[in-house]
Design goal:
By secondary structure, the protein is α+β, with helices and mostly antiparallel strands. It has seven helices and seven strands, in the order ααββββαββααβαα. A seven-stranded antiparallel beta sheet has the order 1-2-3-4-7-5-6. A hairpin with an 8-residue loop joins strand 5 and strand 6. The longest helix has about 30 residues. It is globular and about 45 Å long.
């Protein structure tokens, strides 16, 4: 069993000034936890979906000036990358931890994925009340799903379908104050419960349902 206990030090990495200093702290403080989660959940997703999943830890290699405001480990059924596929993520920023499934603009089949979700919109009503959605993986802001069911959900899915830069993320944000009070066992249970709720969405996205 993986042992992950989040602390204020993890979240505070994203308040460190300067690209080099923040990246050094990210590599030494947060990345070992992502590596442990990657090892744990790659097998979990493989067992749950029937497809071999691989963990991909964000490297932020293209950054030359601005330090990253968040970081993550992503999971997808492709060894060489994840951005072109719908993927799961566990990630961190200075205000919260996020557990999501995402379709980002690099996905070449995202229009078809959006259509499948639009044609199965009722599945979103089955998600937990504290879930969120977003249309931008670079933004730390999100919309409560309960509010989005009145129209914003449809708007984001239509944008995902019709706009080249359209994206769609759905899942759970855990505030840092709540996250640091979770034991390792409690956190893993929250993560697994979140992913269990997201599997029907993922199955629709990839055409399994």
């Amino acid at each position: 069993m993986v042992d992950i206990k989040w602390t204020n030090s993890d979240f505070n990495v994203f308040t460190i000034d300067g690209l080099d200093h923040r990246m050094d702290a990210l590599k030494t403080i947060v990345r070992p936890k992502f590596e442990a989660l990657g090892n744990h959940f790659a097998g979990y997703f493989s067992a749950k979906t029937g497809d071999e999943f691989f963990a991909h830890i964000a490297k932020h290699a293209r950054r030359t000036v601005n330090p990253p405001n968040d970081s993550w480990v992503a999971f997808a059924p492709y060894k060489r990358g994840y951005k072109s596929l719908p993927h799961f993520q566990i990630g961190l920023t200075y205000t919260h931890l996020f557990i999501i499934v995402a379709i980002i603009y690099e996905a070449p089949q995202k229009s078809a994925m959006a259509d499948r979700l639009l044609n199965s919109i009722d599945v979103f009503y089955e998600l937990p009340d504290d879930f969120i959605i977003s249309g931008d993986h670079t933004s730390l802001e999100a919309i409560p799903l309960k509010e989005a069911l009145n129209g914003q959900l449809n708007e984001l899915l239509i944008r995902l379908r019709d706009v080249k830069k359209g994206e769609f993320l759905v899942g759970r944000h855990i505030p840092r104050e709540q996250c640091i009070n979770l034991s390792s066992e409690e956190f893993l249970k929250v993560a697994e419960n979140t992913f269990e709720a997201l599997f029907p969405i993922y199955d629709i996205i990839v055409g399994k349902n």
